[in-house]
Amino acid sequence: MAYFAAVLVRTEHQWEAQEVDLDDVEDLEGIADLARASSVDEEPVVLLLEQEDTWFAVIRVDGEDDPRIYVSDAAAVARSAYGDTLLTADVLGHDPDDEEDAPNTGPAGDEAVLADFGVDPDELGELGGGGRLPADALIVIAERLGCADELETVR
Fold it and tell me: What's the CA gap between 136 and 88, in Å, rounded?
């Protein structure tokens, strides 16, 4: 399964981006640990993930706080290799192991994950739908954060 993942690290004056490999990450806590390892002085870290132009995820880690996550299409994520990693009960609002309660098509998680950085929750929700490619949505998110050029250099 082809994917693109990048960590955006907030420094004192700007964001820095680096592509990351998630092949050895087994769960959401592993993603959070990977993000924390990139952090500078416990500044926020945002991991952007996109798989095969089907869906995207935004995972935010602030210091030792629990990661906050938003996915553009919970059903698509559930069918992917990252379903077990990303679709926790906190994201879906129900137990992902309950086969009777399958995730709905569409966004799930914390739409306000980047609100304090200028990404309006309604806009984030719109980026996940409307036929926009996930790669394009990540560019819009990076533009709002002020780091589109940094993201493009690692893409």
Answer: 25
